[in-house]
Specification:
With 246 residues, the chain is mainly α. The protein contains ten helices and no strands. The radius of gyration is 23 Å and the shape is elongated. The termini are far apart. About 3% of the residues have low confidence.
């Protein structure tokens, strides 16, 4: 976003027009909002500020929804998997997909090299520059699994704990990507953004109520397992009756 403010005259108008076209193409606008965008372009040096505010207001809910969806996927995938390699592979896949989705949701179409650079910068800030010692798992776990988290059996608790860590990390990936793309006052200062992302990720967990979706998935999975087990028992019983032992 700050690139709009680094332009003057015709160049600024050109990029403001591109942002306006982006908004028209990638968001559902009312006739009044479309007219409002055209009016922004006539505001001279104030056009960039008006468009940035409008862009942020329109795209923030869309991106937050994508972050929540990715965090849910990260939690469930990790919680049901007991393989470290698969966990690592799935986490990498989920987070790369989230970054790309956020970029595309904003209407950007970067080159492969630019997208790769963004991948490296965001993932490095999330996974290499921080550690689990900066996280309070006892605070995080109930936010993802609900208040019953501490009553879970040992193995289930361990899976839920690992899923919580990965969901939290995925939310931080989304937050840092959003900060990077929405930076309006200049290039993002990644060290400070990384520190801020911890608290913001916790706040995001509290507001998005991820635990409700996770619990619903767990119940559905458990019910499916129960029905499969019952069907299996019924099948064995039926085969025993039709083919008695001799």
């Amino acid at each position: 976003m700050y690139m709009l403010r680094y332009r003057d005259g015709r160049a600024r108008f050109y990029w403001c027009r591109k942002l306006t076209d982006n908004l028209k193409k990638n968001t559902e606008l009312t006739n009044e909002e479309t007219a409002q965008l055209e009016d922004f372009l006539k505001q001279g040096n104030q056009a960039d500020d008006l468009l940035i505010d409008f862009f942020t207001e329109k795209f923030s809910p869309v991106i937050d929804s994508e972050i929540k969806s990715a965090a849910k996927t990260a939690f469930v995938t990790t919680a049901i998997s007991q393989t470290a390699f698969y966990d690592m592979f799935s986490m990498l896949s989920v987070n790369l997909h989230l970054i790309r989705t956020i970029v595309e949701s904003c209407g950007y179409r970067p080159s492969g090299a630019s997208l790769l650079g963004l991948y490296v910068r965001i993932l490095k800030a999330t996974f290499l520059a921080g550690g689990l010692e900066e996280m309070d798992l006892e605070e995080l776990l109930p936010l993802v699994t609900g208040n019953a988290a501490m009553k879970l059996p040992g193995l289930v608790f361990a899976s839920a704990a690992q899923g919580t860590v990965n969901a939290f990390m995925t939310i931080r990936v989304g937050i840092l990507t959003k900060k990077y793309l929405f930076s309006a006052d200049g290039p993002i200062e990644m060290p400070q953004a990384r520190k801020d992302s911890y608290k913001e990720a916790i706040d995001f967990l509290k507001k998005c109520e991820l635990h409700k979706d996770v619990i619903a998935i767990a119940k559905k999975t458990a019910q499916g397992a129960k029905e499969a087990a019952a069907a299996s028992v019924k099948k064995v019983f039926k085969s025993t009756k039709t083919s008695p032992l001799t």
